[in-house]
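pasting for the record
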Amino acid sequence: MTLAPEDDGTVLARAMDMELPGHGDATRVQVGRAELVLENRRGSFSLLWSDGREARRYVLGLTDRGQLRLELRVPRLPLCCVPRDVVTLVPGARLRGYVTVPLVPTVVWRRGDAPAEPLVELVPDELQATWDEQKGHAFEVGVSWLSRFPFRSGAAQAIAPLRLANRGDAVVSPRHLDVQLTDDGLWELRGALVARPQRLVWGEDGLSGPGTGADA
């Protein structure tokens, strides 16, 4: 059995139920180019995740007293987005655009009204853990600045609308943008998952105003 929001695999859903397969059967979930396969073999369940570049295998002991789901969740650590393009704002300038950031496919177990219990977190390779003495742990990820709403691809990612403004008297060229995401701040739009718009404002003393970002 294959579960996917659309036959073309480009419509992204925040969560998909995974039916427990019978003995000798398998359940498949497609997320963009990646595939998750749950097999029932001799009393144990084998979970295989493959994105075309690598494969990961997990062995699970499950019962019929719960529900298995695949949820797309925001990364646990803050996101430090490093623009692949040079982004520069002269005094008084504003920029509006989008970046796309990876989400973490997470296999969870639900029993009735009890809170969901994460079983497997499939953290993508694009998220590189870093440490900063001032900000602590974060995930660093390369992003491209997009001036238009991205075409849907079905990949496990969120679209983050950003508004940048330079209210200072000096040119600002941020080396990174700290994007804040929350699970309850994502919604489905145009077949994609979109975050709440965030505003990053630079003044005389660097970054100020709502949101977070990089030093000039």
